[in-house]
Design brief:
The chain has 19 helices and no strands. The protein is mainly alpha-helical and about 450 residues long.
Amino acid sequence: MNREPDFLEHLRAELSGGRVWIDRAIVLCYAIAAGLFVVGFTLLSDWVFGQFKHVYGRWPWVVLLTTPAITAGIVWLTRRYFPGAGGSGIPQVKAALHPDLPHDKRFFFASLRLTLGKIGLGAAGFAAGLSIGREGPSVQVAAGVMQHARRWLSPGSTIDGRALLVAGGAAGIAAAFNAPLAGVVFAIEELTGRLESRSSGLIITAIVLAGLVAVSVFGNVSYFGVIRIPRLGWDLLGPGLLVALASGAAGGLFARLMSASLTGAPGRFNTLRARYPVRFAAGLGLCIAVIGLSTGGITFGAGSEAVKQMLRGHDELTPLYTLLKFVATWLTAWSGVPGGIFAPSLSIGAGIGDAVSVIANADLAPALIAMGMAGFLAAVTQAPLTAFIIVMEMVDGHSMVLSLMAAAMLASLVSRMISRPLYDTLAEYMVERARDDAAYTPPEAPAREGAASVNP
């Protein structure tokens, strides 16, 4: 027969474990540090991109020189000194969590050194005007900080490296988007598949502390403000279905292009990328600069300002500009620079929703834009719960919970018919390379410029 728990007995047991409390205090301090690193990355990225816009506003044509040069420099530095920092950052954390990855190679994908490299190189990407976001990299930034806590914990601590990585990744999403609920769902849906009871407290605590750091700096406000949605009725069904299908197909195509580009799929351009990575990156940087000039600068950066303008009723991303933003984001990722695709995906999805609103009821535009954001992000990541919760928290769209959920789920289903899950594909590629090559350097850093690639 089970007896009721004895409060005093449990209290004495808790207080008697002095070292346990020290370990907990260490983890809490690192969770706060993870939030500070993400906030610092956010402030630095925003400041750097502000300087880019200032220079572009005065001398627009200078980007034809600066964007290729900075892009080439970033790729060279990444491959030479921070090979695990290239790309989004989420596949690296998933690779570090993969059960087939040897434990001693986990630090190839998440460490304090990579965190510092990711911040500096990621900010440099904004100086080049590349189509990148900081939210995905924030996952690797925070995970690297939390991973560092393991060396200070007691040998018998029940807090393992896997739990620290998951907590850091979830905290990074929560702090970057100012969306704590999205952090919890991201940990379950994208990083672990389930939330173990022994690590759930650690993960939630890390999310809360990192989120509090972000709120203390940026305030407790929605990223895109509060969208004004009229009463939703059956008139949203047709346009909303069109947005979900279009964003699902576009997101699936984007994920397929990304997978083929970043896993060394056979092809002439991937051969050039493998043999001359820095020069290839410079060429793509020039393409991105030309696209930015042709759109009046709209495709530069994450695209968040364009989304805010569309939610206010201004057509920032016409269908052509949305297509060019799609291309610019793909080319940026293909170049191998450290940078995320979350924020650009939201702007592309917003452009799809805005395009559909032109042929539908104009009053539905904010709702369709939000549905496009959730749909395209869900299609690219194939993580529909995380996608719709991120959008819901970013636009304070609690009145649209069912609409956003339906759009994300349908778009993700369409995407699965076109492409494998992007982050899983990239993570598996990284793990395979790490296992097969004893002298492994992650996929964004094979041999020196001009040498034959070791990538398949």
